[in-house]
């Protein structure tokens, strides 16, 4: 289902299901991030639902800093919970899927992205509220892999969708994927 106009990066929330038919193959990306063949197979078979909450950060109550909470689940198993404070500061995390990693995230306008990202096909033609996106850099604490992700809204076919552009690196290897989400509620 298309994203309603009320959904913007600044007011992001709700439940979203990964639409694998509209997304590109993200298996190579997961491989570079160290997921085993069996784990990748399970993810490819699962229905992935992401529950998103955007709220003020508890430690920054007097400021405009916000935290994006991503709760991912599949097969009715508990998923991972990612609390991304949108202030572009590195933070340490650990979970049972990705291991120990660091993340930094921010809300940024398309002209504030790194030049190689801002020149990409995906951000061309974005207008109004859709010029804003969430940018995240994630890296394994041991330095084995890194991931650069840009979230935003764009038309796919005739429908406006929430999209994640991801690029993972491990050594000299690089893999890219575009994840497209259906709005559930």
From TrEMBL:
Domain of life: Eukaryota
Name recorded for this polypeptide: Lipocalin-like domain-containing protein
PANTHER family recorded: LIPOCALIN-LIKE DOMAIN-CONTAINING PROTEIN (PTHR38115:SF1)
InterPro entries, per the entry: Pericyclase_pydY-like (IPR053037)
